[in-house]
Amino acid sequence: MTTELQSAEPAIPAGDGGLVRVRLDLAYDGTDFSGWAKQPARRTVCGVLEEAISRVLRREITLTVAGRTDAGVHATGQVAHLDLPAEYDVPGLPRRLARLLPADVRVYAARVLTPDFDARFSALRRHYEYRVGTAPYGVPPLDARRIVSVPRQLDLAAMNEAAALLLGERDFAAFCKRREGATTVRELQRLEWRAESEHVLVAAVSADAFCHSMVRSLVGALLAVGEGRKPVGWPAELLRSSERANGVTVAPAHGLVLVRVDYPADADLAARAEITRNVRVVPGCR
């Protein structure tokens, strides 16, 4: 039997053939994927996962994800959900999927949650990390798929000073690829650089949500400051624009990793999802 399970709304309570809401925690190397979202004739994370899970369960399923990553972007803490009949062995799903999934994607946990859990709309915040290698010889071969080579001295203090001016709830239209009907208002909660080792810098970036290419655009703007090509106040000045800024270079995808997604307590999941669905507008802005 082939049945498509719609998972955008709360699951029907278990019992008498009802469904349960299942959370999947997963990781992937995005190098050879054309992003998360399914696309015709392209290898995507969602496409590979839905095909494998449908084979294991012998029914078509639909996944809802916390954040759709772009082509080449990695994840160690991605979250998705689907709805399944209550009789399935949910905890055993990762072991069964390990036989079918390719080496560059893994589901490492599956568990039943309250029907109000929504991987996308219930999320409080997403956490990303972006790695840059500054060694003059480039990036070591085993790190080349996850660290971007910027073989020059970067001013870490200037980059953090510029980053601090971007925090808060703002319209990040200058740093986003606009999508029809989508808001570019986001609450940027953390943006700071640290030295992970002698030749590797890491940007930690957290927000309630991110619009298309936002993290890589922010990184690109801050790298321009770190290299001395732009003044400290330049990235913040771009926030005045209601359109994407032409002067911002989008940093390469392979340095970016989705590392964690935060959710509220079960009792607050439905309320959080309702808040997230509302379009946010900064007072005084369009």
Q: What general outline do the C-alpha atoms trace?
A: globular
Mean pLDDT: 90
Query: β content, as a range?
Result: 25-35%
Which architecture of the largest domain per CATH?
Answer: 2-Layer Sandwich
Please state the oligomeric state of the protein chains shown. Answer: single chain
In whole angstroms, how far apart are the ends? 49 Å
- Spans of at least 5 consecutive residues whose pLDDT stays below 50 are 1-8, 11-16, 280-286
Instruction: Give the % helix.
Output: 10-25%
CATH topology of the largest domain: Alpha-Beta Plaits
What is the element string, with H for helices and E for strands? EHEEHEEEHEEEHHEH
Total number of domains: 2
CATH superfamily placement of the largest domain: Pseudouridine synthase I, catalytic domain, C-terminal subdomain
Query: In the CATH hierarchy, what is the class of the largest domain?
Result: Alpha Beta
Taking the sheet with the most strands, its summary is: 10 strands, mixed
Rg (CA only): 20 Å
Give a brief description.
The protein has 286 residues and is of the alpha+beta class.
Can you tag this structure with a few keywords?
tRNA pseudouridine(38-40) synthase activity, disordered N terminus, globular, Alpha-Beta Plaits, 10-stranded mixed sheet, 10 strands, 286 residues, alpha+beta, 2 domains
Written description of the protein model:
34% of the residues are buried. The protein folds into 2 domains: 19-121, Pseudouridine synthase I, catalytic domain, N-terminal subdomain (Alpha-Beta Plaits, 2-Layer Sandwich); 125-263, 2-Layer Sandwich (Alpha-Beta Plaits), CATH 3.30.70.660. The chain contains 6 helices and 10 strands; from the N terminus they run E-H-E-E-H-E-E-E-H-E-E-E-H-H-E-H. The chain has 286 residues and is of the alpha+beta class.
